[in-house]
Amino acid sequence: MTLLEIKDLNKYFKKGKEKNHVLNDINLDVKKGEFVTIIGPSGCGKSTLLKAIAGLDNEYSGDIYLEDEIVTGTSRNQGFIFQEPRLFPWHTVEKNIAGNFSLKNPEIQQHVEKLIKLVRLDGYNKAFPKELSGGMAQRVAIARALLRNPKILLLDEPFGALDAFTRSHMQEALLYIWEEEKTSMVFVTHDIDEAVYLANKVVIMSARPGIIQKTISIDLPFPRKKTSTSFQELRTLVLNEFEKVEEFEGTYAEI
Amino acid sequence: MENRGVIALEKINTGKKSTVRKTKETSHTGKLIKGIIFPVFLLVIWELAGLYGWVSDILLPRPSTIFVSFIDLLLTGNLLGHLEISLWRALGGFLIGGGLGLLLGLFVGFNKNMEQTLDPTLQMIRTIPHLAVIPLFILWFGFGETSKILLIAKGAFFPLYVNTFLGIRGVDSKLYAVAKVLKFSKWKQITLLILPAALPNILLGVRLSLGAAWLGLVAAELMGSSEGIGYLIMDARQFSQTSIVFVGIIIFAIFGKLSDSLVRYFERKLLKWQDNFQG
């Protein structure tokens, strides 16, 4: 069942008289419960596409449907994780997760408690963001998004600022959350391993104008092993596509 | 796999926490001693200088002489009465000026139109020195309490106004984006995001406003009054009672410091979430 449908999406950035075609005829479907990663060189418009899905950016032509309803702005249906955790430093972990909901409401309190357990931060309810490591803070941000019961979770290079170890643990954590909550995910990254490791479907984009170069299904069962031959084969497949994009980029730059 | 990683992360974290606590505990009495050493040293030098006649007793009375004057004033000179009057003036002026400053700072901070209409005028008034408006205030309101309290209020208004405005405009736009994604209502944006973010600036404004109120108080009481610590100083000057001048100055210093410490106490309580360089 299709959850998210993007139809003929075009977007331009205007810079003086110059018109930069950032997104060119993007068509993309995300099924319910599907994990889609979007990968591409910087400037390919992958983050712009994600912001359009989130409703943070409405200046585009074409349509985005979420459960057959057209997206016009931000809503609780679209959870968004930024590259940085962006927690409110003056609120404790539990208040950050609750946000505009009152913790005095027992239902919210229970949900927050459940999510803190889900992201494995038991005992950190009353901690302030300054007491958390980068990975922990990002997990709070994920819990905060999940509290709104989003139909789809949009993640904009969420682990880009983390070190390799923490990043690997966060990938495990995200897959665990995905299996538990069955929320559909659209995950933007520039890390090929990460893209293949997490996804049911990898979308490869190229830049100037931003188009979808290729979509590759990753039909490997979970849990996956990054060292297995089948994983490496798929990784090579994605890498080859990605290199085509990069080459194209290179020749473009020379012109 | 993941479990282990999480536990490892938590270990690193709790380790850091405990070391921070330890340094805080050991430095508490140390901080007090460090703060006291320098003034005590000065007092001893001062007393000795007076005792051996290195400086004139009329120009710079010894600390012990000042202390005797203080006791004397306390018992026979109605020191507490003067102090009470001064405190009321400072408090009244601070509440009126600071309150208005906070209110206008909020209005102007939240509203671009308000800023364009009001801010240029207020900034112009801000640059007018205290001493320049004293004659005007005396002409308008006489030598009574009104002119004094208004003068103090004028001083207390601007630090809070400017800092509240800056605090509101300094909110991180990245956190605004979060509020937008999470669908915060306008009201929740103000109470959960803007006001907490502006609080460090607002409290700084309160501290500066209190300082300005003390400054205004001295100016107001020196311009002519028959009560108050400022009057005590002026009166003592006329009779060359230097030790009483010192008593007045020290009382200003002590109450200035006390009011500042009170605000800093609230700062520590309300801003414990801050993660700043501790020196």
Any overview of this molecule?
The complex is a heterodimer of chains A (255) and B (279). Chain A is α/β, with parallel strands linked by helices and 255 residues long. Chain A is built from seven helices and ten strands. Chain A has a domain at 2-88 and 150-220: 3-Layer(aba) Sandwich (Rossmann fold), CATH 3.40.50.300. Chain A has helices spanning 46-54, 93-98, 106-118, 134-147, 164-181, 192-198, 229-254, and strands spanning 2-15, 18-31, 35-39, 61-66, 69-70, 78-81, 152-156, 184-189, 201-206, 211-217. In chain A, the strands form two sheets. A six-stranded mixed beta sheet of chain A has the order 6-7-8-3-9-10, with helices on both faces. Chain A has a four-stranded antiparallel beta sheet with strand order 2-1-4-5, with helices on one face. In chain A, a hairpin with a 2-residue loop joins strand 1 (2-15) and strand 2. Chain A is globular, with a radius of gyration of 19 Å. With 279 residues, chain B is mainly alpha-helical. Chain B has two domains: 1-55; 62-270, MetI-like (MetI-like fold), CATH 1.10.3720. Chain B is 84% helix and 0% strand. Chain B is built from ten helices and no strands. The longest helix of chain B has 50 residues, at 2-51. Chain B is flat. Classes of the chains: A alpha/beta (255), B mainly alpha (279). The A-B interface holds A 54, 56, 74-76, 78-80, 82, 84, 86, 88-91, 99-100, 120, 128-133, 135-136, 144, 148, 165-166, 168-169, 172-173, 176 and B 1-3, 5-6, 9, 12-13, 17, 174-175, 177-178, 180-185, 188, 192-193, 196-197, 199, 271-275.
Features:
heterodimer, A: 255 residues, alpha/beta, Rossmann fold, six-stranded mixed β-sheet, four-stranded antiparallel β-sheet, 7 helices, 10 strands, 36% helix, globular, B: 279 residues, mainly alpha, MetI-like fold, 2 domains, flat, disordered N terminus
Task: Tell me the layout of helices and strands.
The complex is a heterodimer of chains A (about 260) and B (about 280).
Chain A: E1 2-15, E2 18-31, E3 35-39, H1 46-54, E4 61-66, E5 69-70, E6 78-81, H2 93-98, H3 106-118, H4 134-147, E7 152-156, H5 164-181, E8 184-189, H6 192-198, E9 201-206, E10 211-217, H7 229-254
Parallel strand pairs in A: 3-8, 3-9, 6-7, 7-8
Antiparallel strand pairs in A: 1-2, 1-4, 4-5, 9-10
Helix pairs in contact in A: 3-4, 6-7
Chain B: H1 2-51, H2 63-76, H3 79-110, H4 112-126, H5 130-141, H6 145-169, H7 173-181, H8 186-222, H9 229-238, H10 242-270
Helix pairs in contact in B: 2-10, 3-4, 3-6, 3-8, 3-9, 5-6, 6-8, 8-9, 8-10, 9-10
